[in-house]
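hey can u check if this looks right to u? its 488 residues, i copy pasted from the old doc so theres a chance i mangled smth
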Amino acid sequence: MSAELLLLATLAAALLRAVAAATITRPPGLRDFAQFLCAGAQAAAAIALLNATAKGANATIVLASPLPDLQIALSTEPLGVAIAASIATLGLAHALHTAGYLRAVRAPAPARMQAFIALSMLAATGAAFSANLLTLFVFYQALTLTSLPLVAHTGEAEARAASRLYFALLLAAAIGLLLPAIIWTHAITGDLTFRIGGLLSGKVSPLVANILLALFVFGFAKAAVPPLHRWISEARQAPYPAFGAILGLTVVTTGGLGILKTTLYVFGPAMEQARIASLAILGLVCAAMVWAALSALGKQDIRARLAYLMIAQSAAVTAGAMIGTREGAIAAVLQLLAQSFGALTLIMAFAAVHAATGRVQTSEMEGLGRLMPWTFAGAAIGAASLIGLPPLAGAWPKLWLMTATAEADLVWAGALAAVASIAAFASLAPLIANAGVAPAPIGAFIRPDGASILLVAPVILAAAATLALVAFVDALARFLAPIWGLQL
């Protein structure tokens, strides 16, 4: 199958999954089977496209031409293909887990949740394949719209209020900051196509470069750069499967991807022209890493703690991009991938705990590892990778980040990243350890059979994928080699 067909198949499978969720109302088992089948087809197509791209295949598909020199187009550049493959692969385990969770807790409107998760994955995958800034903006906005119902899904007052803030922050940043940056870039270059070497290279003054970089970084508010980070803590109002999709699959991933595509393909060597803004943003996100990781320590609600930890993790992606070197960019890409695997594994593990025991507070987790050993083993692997314990995949981007800061004479940034990792360890390690060593609570299960295989198996699969990711770090670096063609 050609690269063009594989690209279209990856997107079509996500769309078909959404259609199946919306149209197959009875029986639920058939709808769940259709979800898993479509998710499997998406994963298979994305992995096949990854292999084809590694062998030199490439594809560009123009979806529309709203103006003679502007196109909505998709392409198979290595960074986007790698992100799309990770979304699809993790989405397979997440689809199975979502079906198990919705059945276990008898959640309202399960078909609606499954449909919007599929649509948000479609939007995130489209953003990954975007060939230019216009296409990225279109899918970025589509992701805001498709993920909004996930935050408001329960219909409770807190969820509705959270969804309003979520929508307002993301929309205001995109319209007020990101869109002007895109228009300004087009006015300077006459083009919006992503290009190795950067659209702006040699075409922009230091003043303009600094302003544009700030507009782009804060415009991609899905990357949760303070002060536009509050949406991520509000997303905890979403049910666990939706929360996992937002933090581990789609929204946070697309925010980081937007910043990476901008720094690599729009700025390129022009990052040197934007040195003042990049250093200021680097200082901001490094401080945010420490603040968010420390704030997580004080959160008793599991989703709130994970939300703040993801602010810190996402800040590491932006930090790597702002260093403006090849090593920093490698750190950012590896971090974006590793945090998705670790975060989704953790969220699915605690979702299984909630479904089986009804517990959502960190203080309520003591001893549950004795009753749910496989679930907490998966949680331990996800947590270890997320906080950067060697030799797991999450450790390598931290090492690359510290190497990049040292080589760029930015040792203070590396020191702050190290402090943030220690704080993240303090947020997760005692929690997982107490679950395993404390006495098992009596009568913990609210379901007589505990967590079903549909809840536990995806956690094990995601944890295995998180473990296996370290074996592909070198291969991934080689696959992404074309985008390191020029020093930033």
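The longest strand covers residues 60-67.
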